[in-house]
Give the backbone structure.
Amino acid sequence: MHFDILTLFPEMFAPITSSIIGRACDKEILNFNFVNIRDYSLDKHKSTDDYSFGGGPGLVMSAQPIFDAMKAVNPKHKRVLYMSPRGRVIDLPKLKELSKEQNIVILCGHYEGVDQRVLDYWNAEEVSIGDYVLTGGELPAMVLIDSLARLIPGVLSNENGAMEESVYSGLLEFPQYTKPREYEGMEVPEVLLSGNHKKIDLWRFEQALILTKKQRPDIFDNYVKNHRDLTKDEQKVMEKVLRML
Ligand code: ADE
């Protein structure tokens, strides 16, 4: 999957060149082309923004540098996304849809946004990471890339990892423990040391249900309505959790 990332601050993207995403780049599963919008400014001061026609506070990113940066990445047959709090908030179905693309262009805005003609001409789809406003599109772009990368085969070492975790299974993830068995007087739950995998799976299912009911009642209600077939034992656990206050 190839990403062209148009930004005024390419250096902000250092975090996605390390760790799991960095390894996916080494394996050539992912590929990033960072384009500094300022390099395309024809202005003698390399300016990239100006006042908003009609007035109002803040500066707007000018069309010319972004247009020329866009032409350089040849987005004709590429999906163009613009990170913006005005966009539809990204969720799992959206990520799954985007994970099918081979080429994605991500435009990161700053200041009060970009000249609307950029978005209209390049058919840019506005996408948001949540109903709050950040100072620029770079952090949201990294959030998008990281969550998308996890869905691409070969990026995670365990292929099932992404789907089993958290919201992907329809429930929040159960609590996990590692060595030592006792830490600061706190013991690892006995059942996890029993070696009885059926019991362990049921305990984890129960914990996931309890946690989801407490922390995300919306997800819990959805799971109760739409869950896949449960075994008799799982059904009993579910009934027990439903009876809990
Ligand atoms: N730019 C500023 N805030 C944003 C948000 N919430 N999502 C995407 N891009 C943004």
Summary: The domain at 2-149 is CATH 3.40.1280.10 (Alpha/beta knot). Strands lie at 2-7, 31-36, 49-51, 59-61, 79-89, 103-108, 125-128, 182-183, 186-187. The mean pLDDT is 94. Residues 83-85, 128-130, 132-134, 137, 140 surround adenine (CB under 6 Å).
